[in-house]
Amino acid sequence: MFEFDQYLGFLAFLVILTMGFWLMIFLVAFVPYWIGGSVGELIKEKREARRKAKEEKL
């Protein structure tokens, strides 16, 4: 049937496949959320700075 080396190879394959799957889920789900939040905060800061500069002119 299977030798012990083949069993270890199969287990290593399953571990690497599982880690890749969860990494893909993380990258697809959380990274766009994180980038979107960062961009939103940057836009708010720029808008606030522009508003303050406009108030100082008046």
Brief write-up:
The chain has one helix spanning 4-57. By secondary structure, it is an all-alpha fold. The mean pLDDT is 92.
Mean pLDDT score: 92
Separation of termini? Answer: 85 Å
- Give me the count of strands: 0
Give the SSE string. H
What does this structure look like?
The longest helix has 54 residues, at 4-57. It contains one helix and no strands. The protein has 58 residues and is an all-alpha fold.
Show the helix and strand layout:
Elements: H1 4-57
Primary descriptors:
about 60 residues; mainly alpha; rod-shaped
